[in-house]
Amino acid sequence: MRTPDSATATHCPYCALQCGMNLRPLPGGAGVVVEERADFPVNRGALCGKGRTAPAVLSSRVRLTGPLVRTHATGRLEPATWEEALDAVAEGLARTGRTHGPDAVGVFGGGGLTNEKAYALGKFARVALRTSQIDYNGRFCMSSAAAAHQRAFGLDRGLPFPLEDVPRTGCVILVGSNPAETMPPALRYFTELQANGGTLIVVDPRRTRTADQADLHLAPRPGTDLALALGLLHLVVAEGRTDEEFIAGRTTGWPQARAAAMAHWPELVERITGVPVPKLREAVALFCDPASAMVLTARGPEQQSKGTDTVGAWINLCLATGRAGRPLSGYGCLTGQGNGQGGREHGQKADQLPGYRKLTDPAARAHVAEVWGVDPESLPGPGRSAYELLDALGTEVKALLLMGSNPVVSAPRAAHVEERIRSLDFLAVADVVLSETAALADVVLPVTQWAEETGTTTSLEGRVLLRRRALTPPPGVRTDLDVLHDLATRLGTGKGFPTDPEEVFEELRRASAGGPADYSGISYARIEAENGVFWPCPDEDHAGTPRLFLDRFATEDGRARFAPVTHREAGEVPDAEYPLLLTTGRVVAQYQSGAQTRRVDELNAAAPGPFVELHPRLATRIGAVEGAPLAVVSRRGRAVAPARITDTIRADTVFMPFHWPGEGRANTLTNPALDPVSRMPEFKVCAVRVEPA
Ligand code: SF4
């Protein structure tokens, strides 16, 4: 959409808040600058430093502007033509498939890819490559919340209500979420909540900037959020605060969930979590006294080897108190990546087809196969989840096409993943810069960036948005859709891979029709006219669905399902050799693996490198000095970063941000213990020891 003064209205390339912004062209074709876009209701013009500086990556001198191919002669990546590079990729993938079978070829996508790209990538894997081996880095983001959502409500949309409901509820429990650092413009919803007389409870082992603002901060030992939720539910029952009418009329499974909670009496929960019983009681009162309340989770409870059950425990709390499926109440997940929501709906997840359909459902296979013009029998079945796929590289999976992801920095047990990637027969990476993963590739394909292409994303609210092309890309780059079309053509199936994003979206609409994430009533024109449309939206006369579950849940019987979850420890607990816990997270000036934000001077000045946060008591015990290098050692490796001593963290826990490669790479340490349902790795807790380096 062009604004009257010729700026282009679009959205930020980074997180799932998908802030609206205007891009104004600079004179002489010298790029664009970001300007406030007050008409988009979610951020009302506010941006964090990442969004404000996003154009810097467009003009960065380190962005890729031509393909690179690794030559036999030098062993180095050398400039090549697009024809040479695409031929090499098609040949590398086809040769592997011919020699070892289609499942020896893997595809790895990203939660930052637009809906059109995610859709085309899933189709490319299953139709052009005939491989089941596709997954994406969103598996590392919110898959546990998605699985718990599906299990409880029969449908997964991160927030089943718009953010505008948050200030009008009575209480929000924010679990393992730090929007002050991860999505600062969202903080105003919680500030407004408090200004309206509502209360904010933050659950986090660290007293983050968000926790500082809370009315109540609960700081459990990492990995014990599930026990905490069970303890709160125990008190809800003991104090007679359950909503029996809601439980009887709109849920199933309460007796089992109730019995599980009653086995977690408050003193036991205090011993497990470290949260004192009086604070548990205070939280129950704050949550139950008002007429409405919400629980919002983020990566803290989700990135655990019991992430699905942990989120399930918080959903149980909502259900038992009648705080779900009602106005201004409910459970929601604050999704992280820019298109983390849409990225999981349209087919780049190992077990899913477009429209959030199950790959194992015969009716879903038949519907999507018809849209794709292929035999349903030809569609592969489910493949490996993200970490399992990365772990299989070099053995069962011998060639990989990777788009929009940097697992050398962002995957758990990253040194092992890096070794697996290095052992591949063939690696092709499409990216905008030479990320740490792209640097290992046989072929690197330089692709356009967010402001140089058009496409849709689906925000954490389930609001489908349109990013508009605002400037002409450099001559040496192509879009991801171009790349998939050109590769499919070389593999003999190019006809089904259009390069026009709107054409892809029209096909996506048909493929999603009738599915859980039904986009069939959404068009580019509607998104522009209405500033976004909430799915499901089954036809063009449908207004979209900002609020889900008000009449019934999306399960077969319309009732929400309690999960009979019980506490269990994390994959690793402290012992004599590794006596501390490590938790990882983000800082405000960097995003994910830092592939883009580490290329922005202003952001680097604000957050130049990793650090190890530790409590003064722990620092004294081990002789750590502020700013001096500290080694953090887990069963998987060793990372070194300067000490940052602060009393805002538990004394039994250290924290590292995960945005950097090299010796300070936090994910060298993290544990790939997987949740049995979501296959989420346990990024948020592992056992470590810390010593001066
Ligand atoms: Fe971009 Fe997220 Fe920052 Fe908004 S909060 S400007 S979407 S990174």
Automatic annotation (TrEMBL):
InterPro entries: Asp_de-COase-like_dom_sf, MoPterin_dinucl-bd_dom, Mopterin_OxRdtase, Mopterin_OxRdtase_4Fe-4S_dom, Prok_molybdopt-oxidoreductase. GO terms for molecular function: 4 iron, 4 sulfur cluster binding; metal ion binding; molybdopterin cofactor binding; NADH dehydrogenase activity. PROSITE patterns: 4FE4S_MOW_BIS_MGD. SUPFAM superfamilies: ADC-like, Formate dehydrogenase/DMSO reductase, domains 1-3. Residues 5-62 form the 4Fe-4S Mo/W bis-MGD-type domain. GO terms for biological process: respiratory electron transport chain. SMART domains: Molybdop_Fe4S4. Keywords: 4Fe-4S, Iron, Iron-sulfur, Metal-binding. One of its GO terms (cellular component) is membrane. Pfam families: Molybdop_Fe4S4, Molybdopterin, Molydop_binding. PANTHER family: NADH-QUINONE OXIDOREDUCTASE SUBUNIT G, RESPIRATORY NITRATE REDUCTASE. This is Nitrite reductase. It comes from Streptomyces roseus.
